[in-house]
Each structure stands twice: as C-alpha cells, then as structure tokens.
C-alpha cells in the first residue's frame, strides 16, 4: 500500500504501509492500555491538574488557549493525535505532521539551533543566541477521568524566551523543568504544566558557584542535583536540599557530562572513568571495566522509569570512533559493554517502548538491544551507510522515539524515516526540501521517559520522596559521598 502526498515545503512523499503507521501512532499517542510511552527527553503528573472538571462535550473551560495577534487560535478536538516531528536545518526550524505528511510550520532562525522537549508534551525549547525560545507545537492530550481527549492547533511561536547567555541542558523530572545556563551557571526551574500559551512562573534564584558546562536535575522535596566544576574542568556533582545546602557531594566524576533518571529515581551522571549514581541521599561510583585503559568516557545517557538499566555511549580513545555502548545497572552499580557492528554517535541512542536500548550505527542499521542481557535482538536497516562528520554540529542521522515508532533522519537524502520498533519495518519515508539536523517528536502527552501516559506514576505516595536507606549496594568501599570526539566541542552534546 502506498500513496503520495504533495504539500508546501516538501516534495511528494511516499508513505509505505501508511495504515500501519496510523495504527501505531494511535497506540503511541492516544492513551490506550498498551503501555507505550513517549519519546525520551520528558514531563509530570502536575501537568494534568489543570484539566480537572473537563466537559465531555467540549474543551475544558479552565484550559485556556489564548489568542494570537491574528485572531483566535482554535484548538480542535480530534479522534487521535498524530505525532509532530520538529527538526532543525541550516537557518531554521520546521514541523512535520506525520498524519498528513505536510510541513505545517517553518520558522527561519539564524545560527546553529538545539531542540529540547519542554516537559509538557506540547512545547519545545529552541536554543538560540538569546536563550531558550518557546515553541508551541499545537498538540494537547487532556486527561478526563479514565480517558483522554485530544486537541490540535496550528503551531505557534509565543514570542517568549527564557533568557540565557549560553543555553545548554534541559532536564524535566519531578514535575519541574531545569534549564542550565553555561555562561552564568544560573539554573532556572519552572513547572511545564504552566506553559500554556503564555509565560510560566520561574525560579532562577540559584546559580552554581562557578559557571561551567553543566546540568541540573530537579528532585522531589525541592531537592536539586547539580554538576560541580569551573571553566577549566568539571569534577563531580552534588545533591542540594530545599535551602540549597549540600546533602551529599561526589568529587570522583572527572569531566562530568550527561544525565538521566532510571527506575526508582536513580540519577545517573556520566564521567570519564565510569558513571556515578545517586541513590536517595548518597552517591555511588560505577567502575569502568575497560582493561588497562584509564579513559572510559560515558558522556550521554538514556534512561527510563520503566527500567533500572541506563544506556550510555562509551569512548575509550579520544581519537577513535565509538563501537561499544554501555548498559549501566543501577541495582548493583555495574556496567556491561555491548559491541555494535559499526561506529555510532550521541544522536543515535534512544530507548524503546519496552525499555529496549536502541543504537543507530554508521552501517545504517537500528539495533534493538535487550537491556537485561545485552543481546542484540534485531537489526533494522533504515538508512544508507554513512560516516560521522568531524564537526559535531553538522547533520548526521539522528534518532527520536515516540511509543512504538522510531524516527530517523537521513541528511544525505533529505528524509525522515518512521520505523516500527517491534515489527522491524520502515513504515514511512518523508521527503523534505531541506537537510534535517536535530530532531524531536511531540505527542501531546506530558510524562517522563518510561511512564505510561495514563498513569503518571512516580512511585511517591502522597508526594513524599523516599530515600532508599535500605538499598543494598555491596562493598561500601566503592561508595564515596561523593559525540563525542574527546575534545572540547563534545561538551555541548546533550
């Protein structure tokens, strides 16, 4: 089955197995009991609080979609939400609707741009020279009791910027999105459920002691994880209480970079000699078992609340490509190496709907790895063979996941491919008029990676944060309180 669609901003598009893609999009985006989750990178239960008392016959009166300068911006109720792919190109940001195959928004913005999920399933933060510019992609899943209602509108740029000297990492956890400004060390926190079409309340009252390329992760009980370092280097991390006093500090994480949260709220940060893990109120070190090699950099991590195991990259030679990934088990603070068939880079890692570890390599294959065993269960040919460009800002195949579908860019052909992760088929190929670079997928559902969109279960009764004092970590001697091309340009991978 195939069909062609002609639309503004793109050449004719060949949709292979179009009905299959629509069915998978329905499973991934409309709140069924299938257990699907949305793409990594995040949101929180508090996003649904504004949707109480929703009327079955119309849009929630409390869920106010404001007006733009050209008149009323209507959100229309629809039967399901088709994913929208936001992608950058040289000179702008565009949005592709996967249901119609149309490029429905194209915004010219100069400079190299980064894309970050805002945490509410609807907005994207675009890193520009001014800061993080807010982009409303126009999908909204509104919870009503035991089901959802779905609304969509045209994409909208509210003309709002979270100002920053050097906008860097964006992380959503525990109902808050944390923005880290590398230029000043300032951390901005906001509730993504308050974004709407306006300006959320923000807390920018804390800055790290010395500015560096860092990250912050909000935790429950108003606790905060921050990286520690300065302009000359990064050495570790700290857990801060609500008053921003240090609870526990780890000074054994040289070159700290990359963060994620796994099952049971274990926070994992990458280092140059094995990651560190925050269990409750204490840090543990993962020893990198790489033989005689002292350099074992894990700088990009991908976790899910559905699994205790975190996927990470691994570089053992600053001058050689990466051909192994790591699976970090937060239950026993161990690390398993998995060899893949060809080099890969940070834009080719993600997690699947069943917590599978996904790795896109230069062979053109998307490898589906069982995180428990490290076995490659399937290899799906998606793109042609390619070679990573020397400059990390340059386009190369990039991977993003929403539910059962993996979206893969192919800059060499100006395409984005939709892949059925479970079935192993390429369901659709979208032809573009520009070369895609970065990519993120918007589903309309808030939620952190690995959460079922209907449940939003963070495992905290009554909102209380349970420090796992009875967690068995083995030998206490190992537990202090503690893209990578190997050069400075890597510090912007996230």
Automatic annotation (TrEMBL):
Organism: Bogoriella caseilytica
KW Membrane (keyword) present: no
Keyword set, alphabetical order: Signal
Basic and acidic residues bias (residue ranges): 56-75, 449-486
Extent of the signal sequence: 1-28
Protein name: Pyrroloquinoline-quinone binding quinoprotein
Location of region: Disordered: 32-75, 442-494
Coiled-coil regions listed: none
Composition skew (Acidic residues), residue ranges: 34-55
């Amino acid at each position: 089955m195939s069909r062609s669609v002609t639309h503004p901003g793109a050449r004719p598009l060949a949709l292979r197995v179009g009905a299959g893609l629509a069915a998978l999009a329905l499973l991934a985006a409309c709140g069924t009991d299938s257990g699907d989750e949305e793409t990594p990178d995040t949101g929180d239960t508090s996003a649904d609080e504004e949707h109480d008392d929703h009327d079955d016959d119309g849009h929630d009166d409390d869920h106010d979609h404001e007006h733009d300068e050209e008149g009323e911006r209507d959100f229309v109720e629809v039967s399901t939400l088709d994913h929208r792919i936001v992608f950058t190109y040289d000179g702008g940001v565009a949005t592709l609707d996967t249901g119609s195959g149309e490029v429905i928004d194209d915004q010219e913005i100069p400079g190299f741009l980064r894309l970050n999920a805002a945490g509410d399933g609807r907005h994207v933060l675009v890193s520009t020279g001014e800061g993080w510019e807010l982009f409303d992609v126009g999908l909204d899943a509104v919870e009503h009791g035991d089901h959802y209602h779905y609304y969509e509108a045209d994409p909208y740029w509210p003309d709002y910027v979270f100002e920053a000297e050097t906008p860097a990492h964006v992380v959503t956890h525990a109902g808050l999105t944390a923005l880290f400004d590398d230029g000043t060390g300032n951390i901005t926190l906001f509730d993504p459920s308050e974004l709407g079409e306006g300006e959320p309340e923000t807390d920018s009252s804390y800055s790290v002691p010395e500015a560096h390329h860092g990250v912050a992760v909000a935790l429950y009980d108003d606790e905060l994880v921050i990286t520690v370092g300065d302009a000359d280097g990064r050495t570790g991390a700290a857990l801060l209480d609500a008053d921003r006093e240090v609870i526990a500090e780890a000074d054994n994480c040289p070159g700290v970079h990359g963060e994620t949260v796994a099952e049971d709220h274990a926070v994992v940060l990458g280092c140059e000699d094995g990651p560190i893990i925050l269990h409750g109120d204490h840090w543990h070190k993962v020893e990198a078992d790489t033989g005689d090699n002292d350099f074992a950099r894990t700088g990009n991590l991908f976790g899910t609340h559905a699994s205790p195991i975190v996927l990470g990259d691994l570089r053992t030679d600053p001058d050689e490509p990466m051909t192994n990934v790591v699976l970090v088990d937060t239950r026993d603070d161990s690390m398993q190496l998995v060899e893949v068939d060809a080099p890969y880079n940070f834009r080719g890692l993600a997690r699947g709907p069943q917590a599978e570890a996904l790795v896109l390599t230069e062979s053109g294959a998307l490898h589906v790895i069982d995180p428990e065993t490290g076995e490659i269960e399937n290899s799906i040919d998606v793109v042609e063979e390619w070679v990573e460009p020397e400059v990390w800002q340059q386009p190369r195949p990039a991977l993003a996941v929403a539910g059962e579908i993996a979206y893969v860019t192919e800059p060499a052909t100006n395409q984005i491919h939709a892949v059925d992760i479970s079935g192993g088929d390429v369901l659709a190929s979208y032809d573009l008029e520009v070369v895609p670079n970065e990519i993120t997928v918007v589903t309309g559902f808030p939620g952190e990676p690995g959460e079922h969109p209907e449940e939003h279960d963070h495992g905290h009764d009554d909102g209380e944060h349970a420090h796992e004092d009875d967690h068995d970590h083995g030998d206490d001697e190992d537990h202090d309180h503690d893209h990578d091309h190997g050069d400075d340009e890597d510090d912007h991978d996230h």
